[in-house]
Design brief:
about 425 residues; globular; D-amino Acid Aminotransferase, Chain A, domain 1; alpha+beta; single chain; four-stranded antiparallel sheet; 10 strands; 2 domains; six-stranded mixed sheet; about 35% helix
């Protein structure tokens, strides 16, 4: 049992279906009330009192904006959406969707944990399923770092958490009816010893599940409203232990946007220096970064979520490329871009993907490894590829060459 440290706000399911695999790129989003908590210093504290629901207080969108309720995520997939790591892409998403002048988006951030993604999906008939980022079902035979083996026996505790989530949702949505046919999703991160390296949470006494996001009625909810959903006695925690960060993204002009980027970076560097979530357990060390979400109702749409990572955990350096480095012909430009995009962190993610999907890491596995790597670069670097005029065909060849060389070297050391 992990040690319990009192904080102002605590945290948070499993019969498995047949193994089913889905390419995460299928759910990539792209057309492409005010909280009473505050961040103070690098280790923000969470207030005990829950904020009033924005649905009841009529929390407004930026001037002149109306929420488009169109669902653009794959309607039958419960897989967790990809989150952009580019502030410019978030700005583009907002401008494309709403076209507003002088927009300001209020953001709330939580500590980003470097583990392996896992979700608890609870159906209306009380069936409980564990899924990873790319697989709809994990079980005792087909697991990922033993997350299913650890969570599946906790059916009673998980259903109790589900009931608390539904009760909390109904409190904030007194004029709405819950659609029972839609599952409740407790999205989270499986962390602890042996899951990842070089982060403070890897030094926790044992592995645990940390709730990061809640979906009810097919909609993602504001994190602060569900900050008390947890059962720490059985190893289910809430990301609220690390506190909440508050910032405003103002992109009415380049100067304002740059100032906002600097503020987000400052918070991120604080987390990388000292992980607030790990610190709540008395463990000191490096953190990964922050996940930011726009306030309700924008928070329902993952296009308005953002991840910011410190230098030690960034999977790309394309934003650091200088114009002189790109004043080359198509092949050389693509190679330069690929070298900046395909970092050790991204290569390791591709390697981990094979493990998650139970694909044998051998010579034939090279094709799947590089396919994932190329797709990830194309999705995550979409805006940079377009802005820098990188030839996609040449980029694929360059990424493939880097990936193949790294993969075979890794096999030789395995």
């Amino acid at each position: 049992m992990l040690p319990t440290v009192k904080t102002d706000a605590p945290a948070q399911t499993m019969e498995s279906h047949l193994l089913e695999e889905i390419d995460v790129s299928r759910i990539q989003l792209r057309d492409g009330g005010e909280s009473t908590t505050q961040t103070q210093g690098p280790h923000p504290q969470v207030m005990r009192e829950q904020p009033p629901s924005p649905r009841l207080t009529g929390y407004p969108l930026p001037d002149g904006i109306q929420l488009d309720q169109t669902k653009e995520i794959a309607p039958h997939s419960t897989l967790f959406p990809k989150i952009t790591g580019s502030i410019d892409e978030l700005v583009d998403n907002f401008s494309y969707k709403y076209g507003a002048e002088d927009p300001i988006i209020k953001l709330t951030g939580t500590v980003k944990l470097h583990g392996t993604h896992a979700d608890i999906v609870i159906e209306s008939n009380n069936t409980i399923r564990i899924q990873s980022r790319n697989r709809l079902s994990l079980n005792m035979e087909h697991d990922n770092y033993n997350v299913a083996a650890s969570l599946l026996p906790l059916k009673e505790e998980i259903l109790e958490l589900r009931d608390r989530v539904k009760h909390r949702w109904q409190e904030g949505n007194i004029f709405e009816k819950m659609e029972e046919n839609k599952p409740v999703i407790l999205a989270g991160e499986w962390i602890g010893p042996g899951v990842q390296k070089k982060v403070a949470i890897a030094s926790l006494p044992k592995r645990c599940f940390v709730l990061l996001a809640v979906s009810v009625n097919g909609e993602w909810q504001d994190d602060e409203d569900y900050a008390e959903i947890h059962n720490e006695k059985v190893g289910i925690y809430n990301i609220s232990r690390g506190g909440f960060y508050k910032e405003v993204l103002d992109f009415k002009d380049p100067e304002s946007l740059e100032a906002c980027k600097e503020k987000l970076l400052a918070h991120t560097l604080d987390v990388e220096r000292e992980c607030p979530f790990a610190k709540s357990f008395g463990v000191s060390g490096v953190g990964e970064g922050i996940v930011w979400k726009a306030h309700y109702p924008l928070s329902q749409d993952p296009r308005f979520w953002l991840k910011t990572k410190g230098p030690e955990h960034r999977i790309t350096r394309t934003d650091k490329l200088k114009k002189a480095e790109l004043n080359k012909d198509g092949v050389e430009r693509a190679r330069t871009f690929a070298e900046a995009a395909v970092t050790e962190m991204r290569l390791q993610q591709a390697w981990d993907y094979l493990g998650e999907m139970e694909i044998k890491r051998d010579k034939p596995g090279t094709q799947t490894f590089n396919k994932w790597l190329i797709n990830d670069v194309e999705v995550e670097e979409k805006k940079a590829i377009a802005d820098m005029g990188v030839d996609k065909a040449a980029l694929k060849k360059a990424v493939n060459a880097i990936g193949k060389a790294w993969y075979f070297e890794k096999l030789g050391k395995a």
